[in-house]
Design brief:
single chain, alpha+beta, Arc Repressor Mutant, subunit A, 3-stranded antiparallel sheet, 3 strands, HTH_17, Helix-turn-helix domain-containing protein, DNA binding
Length: 60
């Protein structure tokens, strides 16, 4: 079963950027995320939407 919710580490791996950069982007709301306890999570659909916006030239 494919995961629908990703950790910061999984998002960083997927985007091939550092975890620190990913964490910063999520904290700033540039990548939509939510907290479960003290840990950030990102919905795969939200990440796909973020990627599409980037491809269409929208700045983060």
């Amino acid at each position: 079963m494919e995961r629908e919710i990703l950790t910061i580490s999984q998002v960083a791996d997927y985007l091939q950027i550092s975890e620190m950069t990913t964490y910063k982007l999520v904290q700033e709301g540039k990548i939509p995320g939510f907290k479960v306890g003290r840990h950030w999570r990102v919905k795969k659909a939200d990440l796909a939407e973020f990627i599409e916006k980037q491809k269409n030239g929208e700045r983060i």
